[in-house]
Design goal:
Elements lengths: L7 H25 L5 E4 L5 E5 L2 E8 L12 H16 L4 E8 L17 H9 L8 H14 L4 H9 L2 H9 L2 E4 L5 H17 L5 H4 L2 H14 L8 H12 L5 H16 L12
Parallel strand pairs: 3-4, 4-5
Antiparallel strand pairs: 1-2, 2-3
């Protein structure tokens, strides 16, 4: 029996919504950048946050409508393979990998990691602490599950088959984080605008004016994502865009006229010579 014919328009809508979510996530990360950090969009992954010889790369998905994720989810397995590929290709960079999704974490069929516990939940709990030999059995159970599924790349299969639990923890478990159940796009917009308001408050910028920077930041992030191998986003660029969106720009001649009027009203008819000034 053949399935129902799908609606291409609906599929395109889902793709478009996912791309919007990725841009919103990019803006939120952009606001967190330190002075020496750079954010590359559509690089190794959706987002690559780089500082010197360290990188945090993110795969971003708005997939809550598709159900929960497990270690059997195709995109999860792809993420593990992708992380290992990035690590191999960038041997001089300490790479961490973050899988960000609006989907929740589910439990694999058959509950191979214990009743009611998902493999990704176990993974996150292991990486949240330092390596402990007492967890070797849990580390080995994740490795064996992935090997049994048979969908890993050959180099990664070799590692999982031969490496010690301590080695697996350091090279695979600890660097990969599963950030599931994240806020939806509407909540991200509210979060971003709240951050802009708080940033502007430090300079006594009104909340409504601070929120004006949102559209300009979205446009800049969208443009950066479109341009392969383009310049990365950084904190200085954010500050310029914020200032441009919230500032009041007065032509020099109009400013001089205002100064003349103010001086004339307070001190009499004084002459203000047009000297070069920096605006």
């Amino acid at each position: 029996m053949a399935g129902l014919v799908s609606d291409p328009a609906r599929q395109a809508q889902d793709t478009f919504r996912g791309y919007i979510y990725q841009i919103l996530r990019s803006i939120l990360v952009w606001l967190d950048l330190g002075d020496d950090e750079h954010l590359f969009l559509e690089g190794a992954e959706d987002l690559d946050r780089v500082e010197g010889s360290k990188a945090l790369t993110e795969q971003v998905k708005d997939t809550a409508g598709s159900g929960s994720i497990t270690l059997r989810t195709a995109s999860v397995v792809d993420a593990i393979n992708n992380f290992w590929t990035h690590r191999t290709r960038n041997s001089g960079i300490a790479i961490r990998y973050r899988y960000v999704t609006t989907s929740g974490i589910g439990v694999e069929q058959g509950s191979p990691f214990g009743s009611g516990r998902g493999g990704l939940d176990l993974w996150n709990s292991l990486r949240a602490a330092s390596y402990d030999p007492a967890n070797d059995e849990h580390i080995a159970s994740i490795a064996q599950f992935l090997l049994n599924e048979g969908k890993l790349s050959a180099p990664l299969e070799l590692l999982l088959d031969q490496a010690s639990p301590a080695d697996l923890f350091a090279k695979v478990i600890q660097p990969i984080e599963w950030m599931a159940g994240q806020q939806d796009g509407d909540a991200l917009v509210r979060n971003i605008k709240d951050r802009l308001v708080l940033h502007g408050a430090a300079s006594s910028i009104a909340p409504a004016d601070a929120e004006l920077a949102f559209d300009a930041l979205y446009t800049a992030a969208f443009d950066a994502a479109k341009q392969k191998d383009g310049a990365p986003l950084n904190r200085a660029q954010f500050l310029r865009i914020f200032a441009g969106a919230t500032g009041c720009h007065v032509p020099k001649q109009d400013l001089l006229n205002l100064m003349r009027a103010a001086l004339s009203s307070e001190r009499g008819d004084l002459t203000v010579q047009a000297q070069p000034i920096g605006l």
